[in-house]
Each structure stands twice: as structure tokens, then as C-alpha cells.
Amino acid sequence: MGGFKTIYGMVVGLMEDLNITIPVVLHLDHGSLEGAKKALENGYTSVMYDGSHEDFATNYQNSMDIVKLAKKYNASVEVEVGSIGGEEDGIIGDGEIADPEQAKQMAELGIDFLAAGIGNIHGPYPSN
Q1: CA-to-CA dists, residue 64 to 11, 48, 67, 95, angstroms
Q2: 78 burial class (0-12, 13-18, 19+ CB within 10 angstroms)?
Q3: pTM, full prediction
Q4: What is the pLDDT of residues 82-110, one digit of tens each?
Q5: Structural domains counted in the chain
């Protein structure tokens, strides 16, 4: 179908063609570090960097980098700590509860939204 630039162009084209005058958010959900960077650089107004599969130090550093970049573009940022149970985007989680101190540290980065594992499960249940 195309990359971030293509999707951005399609959305802007539709807004023009349909004379849409209300603000439209173009959001990347569960993006990698590189994906989130590319989305921001190509006009997305919101990204979710999902580093929940990384160790906390890596997730935190990458989240900090995304927050800094997003501020340049006046875009919103969501990050994740812990994991949501079930399967999403090929990542299988058991519904772990996020460490409250890690959640606090992420919130202090200046993020707009925090996805925190609270024991919840969606999608197919893990087979344990």
C-alpha cells in the first residue's frame, strides 16, 4: 500500500477533496522506534512507541527520544510499560502488571498517554 508519506498524502488529499475543515489526527499505533520517527517526520500528529517488549532502560531511553522529536512536530506521544495480555502485533503477553515506579518515570518524560499493563487481556488468550 505504501509507507508513511503515502498514507499522509492520502489523508491530506481526502481532507482537501471532501473539504474537511475540522482537525484530523493521524496516529501510528504500536510503532517501533524507527516507525515512530518516520511517522513524525512524515506528518503524523500522534504516535505510540511500543517498547514494552524491550528492557525498561531501553524502553525509557527510546521513549525519551520520541518525546523530544514529537515536541518539534507538536505531536502527541503514547508509550507502554508492562504488557497487555493476549496477542497484538505478533507480541504475546500474559497480562503483566506494570511496575508503578516505571509508569511514574515514563509519565515524567512529558508523554501524553500511558498504556500500562494492569493485568488486562485482549485478543486471543495466551495458552498457559
Answers
A1: 28, 12, 5, 24
A2: buried
A3: 0.84
A4: 866 666 656 666 667 889 999 999 999 99
A5: 1
Domain for residue 16, yes or no?
no
- In order of 49, 55, 65, the CA distances from 43 in angstroms are 16, 29, 17
SS3 content of the chain, % helix, strand, coil (to 5): 40, 25, 40
Amino acid at 118: I
112 is catalytic: no
Domain of residue 66, CATH code: 3.20.20.70
**Ramachandran region of residue 36, left (φ > 0), alpha (ψ -120 to 50) or beta?**
alpha
| Amino acid identity at 34 | E
The three cell numbers of residue 71 are: 515536541
Pairing of strands 27-31, 86-88: unpaired
Which is the catalytic residue, given 17, 29, 94, 112? 29
Which amino acid is it at 8?
A: Y
The answer to the question of residue 75 being in a domain is: yes
Give pLDDT, residue 82. Answer: 81
C-alpha 103: how far from its chain's center?
15
